[in-house]
Amino acid sequence: MSAACDVCGQVSDYPGLCCFYEKYIADEWDPDVRSRIMEQPMVTIPIDTAPPRPTNPSPQVIWDPTNSKLEIPARTQYLISSETSSILTTIDKMATDGLNPNILIKGSQGTGKSELAAQYAASRKRPLAVLEVGRLSDPSQIFGYLDLKDGGTRYVKGLFTEAITTPGAIVHLQEINRPENDKSLNALFSVLDDGQRSIWVDELQDYIKVAPGVVFFASMNEGFEFVGTLPLDLALESRFHFKLSLELLPTQWELTLLQAKGLDIGEATVLLSLIDKLRNNVQTPIYISTRDIVNIAKLIQYGLSAELAIKSVVGGNKDLMESIRLTAHIAGTSVSREVTHYDYI
User: Fold this and answer.
1) What string of DSSP letters covers 244-282?
2) CA-CA distance, 119 to 201, in Å (whole number)?
3) Helix, strand or coil for residue 159?
4) Proportion of the chain above pLDDT 90, given as a percent
5) What is the pLDDT of residue 230?
6) Which stretch of DSSP H or E encloses residue 155?
7) Residues 202-234: tens digit of each pLDDT
8) CA–CA separation, 293 vs 81, rounded Å?
9) Model confidence over 271-312: pLDDT tens digits?
10) Looking at domain 52-246, does it have CATH number 3.30.413.10?
11) Rounded CA gap, 295 and 37, in Å?
């Protein structure tokens, strides 16, 4: 049966397919943004491959900090490269236009993957929801759960559902390749897919629709040494518009970070000289991440020696301590061989 499109008024048997971009814009979204997106070229979608349109999409709410499980994270000193800054600016533009950018962050442990998502939200003053993928054993857990109350059952919407229906919210899928069950991520496919951005929930008898401007970050560690992780499904990975790889900061920027964390220039220089030699030890190189360096600096501020701070953070065995002592000696740093005494706690 023919009907008129809600946006352009065109009468056809498939109203709405003439305005592909309409599905990204809520009815109450800024009309200026709506008109800007509608001026873009139309995209022809074959009828047999067109995604089903939500017949009764969930309402899209404005974030109310007084009645919400979402919070804006606190700002911290977090350094990013000019390349990453350019990417984040592009993400800002996409979100402002009502789109939903997906960003996958890879990199060695301790390079700031999780903190990047948090500081993006903090710097933009936008609410953040962190979904611990490692706790998921069933797809339905992502959106909510059935609860018994007063002799009946009710569906309790989870943090993820509140976040994706809040315009402008930031969602972090933490350790996306570490689910308890490899099928538990299936529910994310349609949510992350630009052609759908919605999912039907049987318990609600309704669609949950992603709100305009919601930004999805996902972080992961790759490699056999990360116990419990799985290879990321290629179909899921292909849904991410941006794939960032974070590395250790260059030494001069680690120096800047340590000073921002409270060490003076002398302490920071000596510490980084020692760490650089440990990292580049020919026989037994020791991986010390940016996060490790920040934690070592914190312990030094609380009175530990550089030697003991490194041992505490990196995890010291006898061979490691000998390596630290030798490296410190070569670097010209005084490292004592004090006898360890024992007493009751």
Assistant:
1) EEE-PPPHHHHHHHHHHTT--HHHHHHHHHHHHHHHT-S
2) 32
3) helix
4) 29
5) 72
6) strand 152-157
7) 877 888 899 999 999 999 887 566 656 677 888
8) 18
9) 898 888 888 887 778 889 989 999 999 999 999 888 888 888
10) no
11) 46
